[in-house]
Structure formats: structure tokens, C-alpha cells
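Lab meeting minutes (informal)
Scribe: AK
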Amino acid sequence: MKFKYYIVALFVFIVLLGLYVYSLSGASFTFMIPFSTQSITLPVAVWFVVPVIVFFLIVIFLEIGGSYRMWRKRTKYKHDYKILLEQIENQLLSKDVPLKQPTMNRYKSLSILLGNLTLDIKEGIALKSGETRLDELIELLGDLKRGEYVNLKKFNPGEKSPFMNQNILNQIHSDEKFATEVLKKSSYDEESKREAFKKLLNRGETKTIKQFIGEIKFNKELANEMLGMCYANKINFSNDEIAKLCTEVKYSKEDYLHLAQRLKECYEPAAWVGLFENLANQDELAEIAYFYVLLELEMIDEAKERLNAYPQNELLKVRAYLDLKDSGKKYPLELFLLD
């Protein structure tokens, strides 16, 4: 029953009770106030109504007190629930912000449990929770993980957020102009610059590639892609430029040998020999690859002459191959050079 109906019903009851008692007896009754000479004289009907009114006032007081307690509880619930939603958003975006503590014990425990977890977005279409802001964020992050560029400014994820880094990479993959801007600005990290450079490589922007080579800190993966442009004759690198690139990414013996094998089909013999002679002179790790080129081209005398510069206990596999070849036996060259 609504409280206003209760008041109306009680008022009607008091009036009817008073009228009924008064119709039975219109006499008055005198009440002596304890510890006083004063007295109160009222009709009997009024004395019957007064306890009902007092009871009514007590009920009102209790009702107001209960309503206030419920209001306080609902307020705490809404406040703590809002804190938990903010915490989920901050953890999703990896924001480094102080953790707010809910006031209610159960929500405080839940907040601590959430703080011990790393949150992520599952694959597939997310179900709607009814919390508009979080639903929107989860949908955006899901699109981001699927490789789309999304606008996260509304949620202010911060520059250190992994989602922010992924969003930059997504924009690079989808927007060639943005990739060029990334290469022009020093504010972007090395990973972003490498992805932007790779984007231009895949597009075959040879002029732009040459322009930004000095801005990139190469790794082996990117160096291999760059040299792949040489294999396809899409970009021209001098021997010194190739040597510098290989040294920068710390090519191993196996990397140099693999490079020699890949260049075999697309380089003229003279250019092939010249390149690996240059590489071997600048990096001793390229020596085996140079011997591979010489032996593959049947340049036996040149190989023996270079081998003489080494002690007898070095490059034993190359010596074994040459000895077998001198005795008329043929074996695949790779068996002697690959570990």
C-alpha cells in the first residue's frame, strides 16, 4: 500500500472512531499529570483517538527511517557499481590509475578480485550487457583485434595502452598516407615505424622507401623483406648498402648462406660474386656464404686461393669438399656448408 493511502485510511479511521465513541458517551475525563498539579480534561472520545495518533506518528517515524536506510543502501549500491564499471574499463584499456575502493564489503572483495586479473576481449560478437559505455568499448576493442582502425578518443586509453599501439598498427595497414606520416615523425616507436616501412615496401613505393631507410631500426624480418625487393628487382641496393643492412641486423652464418641461395636465381654471376666478396670482407660470418658462391660457380681456383689464407685446421668442411671434388667425387655442396 502506498504511504499516502495509508494516511488517508488512518485519518478516516480516527474520525470514525472519534465520532463513534462520542456517540456512546459525550462525557469528559480528567488526566492528572504525574509529579505536577496540572491536569488535562478532554472528552472521552479524544482520549480514545490520542493513542491511535501516537501510534500513527511512531509508524511514520519508522517508515521514514526505513526509507532513509533503503535510500542510503541504494546510493551505496549505485556508487559501488559505478566504481566497478570504471575499474573494468580501466583494466580493459590498461590504464595506470589509482584503484578506487567500493564502500560495501562484497563489492570491495569483488574489486580486489578483478584487480588481480588481466581482462581481454573474446573472439566473436559480444553479447550486450545493457551498460552502454562498456558495451560500446567492448565492441570497439573487438573490431580493433580483428584488424580494424577504430576511434578510441572517447575512452582516452593513454599512449602506453597495448590497444592504442594495435590501433596505430591497424591504421598503418589501412592507410598508406598515415604510414608515411608515421615515418616522418619521431614520436612513434620503432615497431610502428617498421610496420609503416613494411607497408610502403608491400606497395612498392621505391622512392619513399629510399627516403626513409635512415629512419628505421631494422630487424631480421624487415631486412629480409627489404632484400626481397632486391630479389624481385624492385629496388636497387649497392653492395655496401646490403652489407651495412646485414651487419645492422646481425646476420649469422646461416642467414648469409640463405641470402646467397636466394640471390642465386636473380643475380648475374659477376654481381653475385662481387656482392659476397664485399660481404665477406666486411663480416667474417659471411665467409662461408662467399665460399658457397665460389664453389657453386665452379670458381675452384679462386676458392683454393682464398682458403690458403686460413690455417689448415679451419674451414674443414670446405677443404673436405674440395678434396673430394679433386678425387672425382661429387656431393651436394649444401651438405658441407649447412650445419
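Next up, CB showed the second protein from the same session:
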Amino acid sequence: MTMRPATRNAMLLLASFCLLALAAAFAFSAYQAAAFERNNPNRGERIDIGGYRMNSVYMPRSEGADLPAIVFIHGASANLLDPMIAFGDKLKGRADLLFLDRPGFGFSDRGGPQNAYPDGQADAIAALMRKRGIDRAIIVSHSFGGAIAASFALNYKEMVAGLLFLSPATHPWPGGIEWYYDAARLPVLGWLFSTLVAPPVGLAAINKATQVVFAPNPRPDDYIERTSAYLALRPHAFRNNAVDIANLLDYVKRVSPRYREIKAPTVIITGDADRIVFPEIHSRQLHADIAGSKLLRVHNLGHKPDYIVTDLAIAAIESLAAKSRDLDGLARQAEAQIIVED
């Protein structure tokens, strides 16, 4: 059958329009990703740890330092500024502080396929610590970072002076993950989704999404800007995050039975109003797994104890450094000051 000229021309016009629309979408995505980096410049130093570079900010101890080195591991869709804004000023000078971008986040390279799993990222963090001259540290982790910290404690026992888990994600949970993580991790379609959909949709959704992370507590008004949260919307970072989250469930099913091997001093802080991870599944089971651990369950606290009960988290760090702190009493004081939004 011969196609009529008018039909053929219409199809060519439609194809041309689709190609132009696709090209425009790619151009916008490239422009927006460049803008994210231009408006949120790197504040760290990129160091080669063996074929790829990890980005970090190192704050050296002062003369009167009273704490061992502290390493901070951020959660999903974040970067080193998330813990640095929360803890940097309050702990500066008291210890060697290391804030890092996990592989594939912030300004760190992704590295090899092993870095799509918590133990691979733990290896990267250990290598970075050695490069920074840190042999042993208290490991502070938030959310997804908890699975990495637990793997670090299993595989690098000699490098762990203590563990502080903040709203950790460490154990198998019922159900799956959000549909957009499944979409973004697909081999080819995932790249297209992360490139064409994530930047514009993410821009529209980031304000509400970050509020949900803090809920029911108020998010600081300047949180997005100060933590350079827009960096998570770059296509490669969005896709790396999706792959990490998609891999986590099977990983913790396999590794969580080993948590009983962890012997380091441990404190876990969680909120009973956390809407991102289930405290009863993660924090309570982690507490049961790690002998001698301390669990602080704070009433009306959401998913961000690093920002909402920062002083309690610092007291927990001090207790891990063998300082006497009434953590239960401080937790009750923190509860009395927590603000809950409608």
C-alpha cells in the first residue's frame, strides 16, 4: 500500500515535532543540571581513593579538643552539607570532623558497581578516612546512612570508636519502594526518566518533599538552600539514589542477621512520629541486635533528629566518648521543646 503524500507529510511533521521536543527536553535538563551546580558550588575537596574521587570537608580538632574523630554519613537524596549544617558549628574544634559526599552524591564520583550497595560505600568511606589520616572515629549516620554505618561496623571494627544511628534504615520492611525509584533504576528508560522527568518535576516537588521528611516537625525555612538540596535533582544523582534504594531491601535481608556481631558502643535515636522509616522495624530491631546499645525513642519526633534534637544527638556523641550524660533525661527535655505542626 502506498502512503498518501498528505499522510506521509503529517507523519514526518509529527516525528520532527517529537524530535524537537525531545531535544528541547534534553537541553533543559542539561541547562538545569549545570545551574544546580553553578548555584550550589562545591565546598569540599575531591580526593582520589583508588580510581575515583570522594568529596569531603575536613574540620581539624583544636588544641582543647575533647572528643575522638567523628565521621558523618548522610542519608538518601542528600549530600555532606546536610549533617554539616546540623553539627558543624556546634562541634567545630572539639574533634576532627569529616563530612563526606557518599559515592555518586554531591560532588563525589560514583565509582564502580560495588558502590550501589552499602558495603561498597563503607569501603569507600574507610579509604577516604585513611586518606584524611583518621584511623578510628565515632560514626554518625542518618536514615539510609544507617545501613552503611552498620556495614562499616561489621567490616572495619578496628576503625569504629562508637556508633550513633539517627532514624536508621537497617532492616527488611514490608512492601516495596516508590514507583519513581523503580522507574529511575531501569537500564535505558531509567536514564531517560532521570534526565527528562526528574529535574523539572523535582523542582516543583522539592519544597513539599523536604517538608514531608521533617514532618510532623517544621522544616527550617532555609534548609533547601543551605544544604544544596537541589543537587539531588541532577540526573546522575537522582538515578544513583534510586539504584541505592532499590538495592537496599535485598541487601538488609542478607546482612541484618549479622548485626549481632557489632560490639561497638552504640546509641540509636528515633522518633515515634517518623513518616519515612518505621521505628519499630528498624531502630527497635537494631537495638535488639546490638548488645549494650542505647535506644532513645523521642515522642513527636519525625525523621530528622539531626536538626530537631541536635543537642541530644551531640550528648549521645559525648556519651560514646565515655562522658557521663543523662540521655534519658535529655530526651525528655527535648520532647518538651519539640514543635509539632498540624
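CB comment: The longest helix spans residues 5-39.
No objections, moving on.
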